[in-house]
Design a protein that fits this description.
Layout (H helix, E strand, L loop, with lengths): L2 E5 L5 H12 L3 E5 L12 E7 L7 H9 L9 E7 L10 H6 L1
Parallel strand pairs: 1-2, 1-3, 3-4
Length: 100
């Protein structure tokens, strides 16, 4: 199985969650959302871990999602985890607006 977790973290909380997830999965890469990768490899699962900013997605996550090419991974299992202090707001559902 090939798995990948993309993360964006301002304080380190989302990176910690991404690392915890990767420990539970076989053959899992952890990749920062700082740079959009060229995904020509097929993955069984693709995760996105990021903090909630003002009840929504951080701009950096929006830019990443809009620019990532998932053409080779249409059959992958996708999931998202939004870390937050008080409320997750709309941070998960907003992903549908950018890659529906």
């Amino acid at each position: 199985m090939n798995n990948i977790v993309f993360y964006f973290s301002g304080t380190g909380n989302s990176l910690k969650v991404a690392k915890d997830i990767s420990k539970q999965l076989e053959n899992c890469e952890i990749v920062s959302m700082a740079k959009v990768p060229d995904l020509k490899k097929q993955y069984d699962s693709i995760g996105f871990v990021y903090p909630t900013y003002f009840w929504g997605l951080p701009i950096k996550v929006i830019e990443f999602i809009e620019n990532i090419n998932l053409e080779y991974n249409k059959k992958a299992y996708f999931y998202a985890i939004a870390t937050y202090g008080g409320s997750a707001g709309n941070a998960i559902y907003q992903l549908y607006d950018y890659k529906g």
